[in-house]
Amino acid sequence: DVFSVQELIEAFDVKDVNPNPARFDQKKADSINADHIRLLEPAEFESRIKPYLVADGVLPPEASDRQLQILHAAVPLVQSRITVLSEVTGMLGFLFTASDGYEYQSDALSSLNETAPETLNASIAALENISEENWKTDSIQETLQGALIEGLGLKPRFAFGPLRVAVSGRRVSPPLFESLEILGKEESLKRLSRLQDLLQE
Q1: DSSP 145
Q2: How far apart are CA 53 and CA 141, in angstroms?
Q3: Helix, strand, coil fractions of the chain, as percent rounded to 5
Q4: End-to-end Cα, the chain, rounded Å
Q5: Contacts of 50 (CB under 8 A, 6+ apart)
Q6: Which residue among 23, 75, 82, 134 is buried most deeply as judged by most CB within 10 Å?
Q7: For residue 33, how many other CB atoms are within 10 A of its CB?
Q8: Tens digits of per-residue pLDDT, 86-124?
Q9: If residue 194 lies in a helix (H) or strand (E), which one and from where to where?
Q10: What digits encode the pLDDT tens for the residues 132-164?
Q11: Residue 22 gets which letter from DSSP?
Q12: Containing H/E element for 177?
């Protein structure tokens, strides 16, 4: 049935209005958004996050071939880990910043315990033995597990936490070993040494 405006006005009674206010469920909205992000083709996801990285100054409007290569390699590391596209700047910014150009988050530094210096020392010594051509995720993971978990007897959380902070400046970051591969041997060792020096001050 179609009612006229006048009929609707006459039929309205404020007593019939539900007193419970409508509530927006942010968690549910984020969950739905995250599901849609995961359904995107990687190329589509990459094209959607690039404007955020440019707007936040992580990438220049005309990115270099190397920057685009890093972005392409990083896509599978974060597509399943974010709920909204704007989170990519925090997650990926460290990959596009020089080793001395990013800050350590305070919660990341406070997460380090007394084993961090020894962990960094052992990691640097072990990783230096990997050749440039073998600087791949699998060999990096195998080398670090051998040096830290088997060699120092550390649990993974304590073994890799300091490396994550050294590499990204964050306590939570994309997968560590893949990030090290993307950064390359020279840059990765610079980052580990930088945090090592800071902890020795």
Answers
A1: I
A2: 28
A3: 70, 0, 30
A4: 79
A5: 59, 63, 71
A6: 82
A7: 14
A8: 999 999 999 999 888 889 999 999 999 999 999 999 999
A9: helix 185-200
A10: 999 999 999 999 999 999 999 999 888 999 999
A11: P
A12: helix 176-183
Residue carrying structure tokens 């006459």: 10
Can you read off the two tokens belonging to residue 48? Answer: 């959607």
Burial grade of 121 (CB within 10 A; 0-12, 13-18, 19 or more): middle
Report angle CA 74, 78, 79 to the nearest 5 degrees: 110
- Taking the C-alpha atoms of residue 46 and residue 66, their distance in angstroms, rounded to an integer, is 15
The residue behind tokens 């902070």 is 165
User: Nearest 5 degrees, angle CA 46-CA 67-CA 80?
Assistant: 35
Tokens of 169: 């400046």
- 128-151 burial string, b = 16+ CB within 10 Å, else e? eebeeeebeeebbbebbbebbeee
pLDDT tens per residue across span 22-75: 677 788 888 888 898 999 999 999 999 999 999 999 999 999 999 999 999 999
